[in-house]
Amino acid sequence: MTDPSVPTPVTSIPHATESVSVPQVRFRGEGGKLLLLLPPERETATPTAAWTDLWQQLKQRLNAAERFWQANTPVHLIARDRLLDARQLQAIADALTDAQLQLKRVHTTRRQTAVAAATAGFSVEQQPPIVHLNQEESGQALAEPLYIETTVRSGVEIRHPGTVIVLGDVNPGSSIVADGDVLVWGALRGVAQAGAAGNSRCLILALRMEPTQIRIADFVARAPQTPPDQYWPEVAYVTGDGIRIAKASDFSREALLE
Amino acid sequence: MSRIIVVTSGKGGVGKTTTTANLGMALAQRGHKVAVVDADFGLRNLDLLLGLENRIVYTAVEVLAGECRLDQALVRDKRQPNLALLPAAQNRTKDAVTPDQMKRLVAALTKAFHYILIDCPAGIEMGFQNAIASAREAIIVTTPEVAAVRDADRVVGLLEANDVKRMYLIINRLRPAMVEQDMMMSVKDVQDILAIPLLGVVPDDERVIVSTNRGEPLVLAENPSSAATAFSNIVRRLEGEKVPFMDLSAPPDDFFSRIRRFFQGHKP
Ligand SMILES: Nc1ncnc2c1ncn2[C@@H]1O[C@H](COP(=O)(O)OP(=O)(O)OP(=O)(O)O)[C@@H](O)[C@H]1O
Ligand SMILES: [Mg+2]
């Protein structure tokens, strides 16, 4: 009943620190406006690298989800402790304009960013650093699902404190790290991690399961050495013996038998 | 309006410069005014492949420094007067120019040329940023190898983020016999991952190496080699002609490739 292409389960490797979910650039709807949430500054990255990274994520989010908001929706940029200069703020505003969104207000905890935003003509709200706007991430509840309609390409990493749904392929060299489930309506060829905050009941689903590696909570599995002749939609889940993969059509029955 | 096309790959040595030289020459033969720009500062090669090395007086760096005019730095090809080369400096590094400077150079070239082909250096650092800064279209060159395709995929992602929306794929150095024996990625394998329109497939051909060493682009030869025919077809497709692909055995259509094509058709 189990698929012969079941990958070798590797049991319970210690919870790596990198799997702690650091949120990425993302949008969230709130009372008729959109919040554009930037991740907090990471110490390791150089300023240019941090900006390039941020920019690529923003463009990807915009390209991937355009049809989910109405034209001229106002946007509040939640910049947290990120340093942004006037040119970068303008670039963000222009990218939003191209997607028919309007940057209305910049929230920041940094004086420099506040000054740059004001100079560039945006309204600004500066909070003291303690009132972090990422409080929503510290609770137990998952964030609303992140839906992206794009090919996730090599070098791209998507982290989200909730479920991630990809309409498109997840290519080798990319990774998806979700605190909830990972659903790929396409080929999963990169690395996918579900239940990154430790929930082993999370699932990974793909139309075509060809991952480099999959992880659910603390469990890790690699793809089989010899690829199968044919692919079906499949589901990866955790059992007493580690990660199993089943045909999607067999899954619920099988899960009930466990 | 001029077409500004960057030829890029991520991985080194896969055939960017060879492609730029041959497409530039073939476009010029078709009557277009073409400028090929060497953006590989410090490791320039394009002049060698075009056999124009000994005619370089000034480079892009002198133009930017105001030490000469743009048309003084351009090297016209004697065999094909429609073609001109803007050389890179050999004694500088990739940080010698900025993306804004490249944009200004290319903008100046658009006044006199229909096609501007930019030969991008390997990698995704400063030299890459410079080369793509002004491009509106991109030709992604890859060989059918896992590492080259991986890097090409990364580059496609970076180009998407930089608003280069039109991208085309060239698969270089294909060896059909090896594909047949399952020892090399097939055209379909590569396309499955990169999911951008295929402009052409260039076979692995030793005459490419001979032409590189002689400084004579293949498309100039009297008796066209298979690689030369591939480059001519690529240029016709680039200009919107429907040219059938050279016969390369493809596996039968299956359900999943149909699904994938469905996705490709619906890309935003
Ligand atoms: N189709 C081909 N058949 C055989 N040899 C080829 C083919 N294409 C390119 N080559 C050879 O591969 C080598 C590298 O080609 P080329 O210089 O065009 O690559 P590149 O991508 O520009 O390299 P770099 O990243 O160093 O700039 C050259 O020696 C060239 O002759
Ligand atoms: Mg080169």
UniProtKB/TrEMBL annotation, chain B:
The species this protein was found in: Leptolyngbya sp. NK1-12
Protein's gene: minD
NCBIfam families reported in the protein's UniProt record: minD_bact
InterPro entries: CobQ/CobB/MinD/ParA_Nub-bd_dom, MinD, MinD_FleN, P-loop_NTPase, ParA/MinD_ATPase
Domain of life from the UniProt record: Bacteria
UniProt KW Cell cycle keyword: yes
GO cellular component: cytoplasmic side of plasma membrane; cytosol
Protein role: ATPase required for the correct placement of the division site. Cell division inhibitors MinC and MinD act in concert to form an inhibitor capable of blocking formation of the polar Z ring septums. Rapidly oscillates between the poles of the cell to destabilize FtsZ filaments that have formed before they mature into polar Z rings.
GO biological process, one term: division septum assembly
Record: residues binding ATP: K11, G12, G13, V14, G15, K16, T17, T18
PANTHER family: SEPTUM SITE-DETERMINING PROTEIN MIND HOMOLOG, CHLOROPLASTIC (PTHR43384:SF6), SEPTUM SITE-DETERMINING PROTEIN MIND HOMOLOG, CHLOROPLASTIC-RELATED (PTHR43384)
Gene Ontology MF terms in the entry: ATP binding; ATP hydrolysis activity
Family according to the record: Belongs to the ParA family. MinD subfamily.
Residues annotated as domain CobQ/CobB/MinD/ParA nucleotide binding: 5-218
Keyword vocabulary terms for this entry: ATP-binding, Cell cycle, Cell division, Nucleotide-binding, Septation
Keyword Cell division among record annotations: yes
Organism lineage string: Bacteria, Bacillati, Cyanobacteriota, Cyanophyceae, Leptolyngbyales
Gene3D superfamilies the UniProt entry points to: P-loop containing nucleotide triphosphate hydrolases
Protein name, UniProt field: Septum site-determining protein MinD
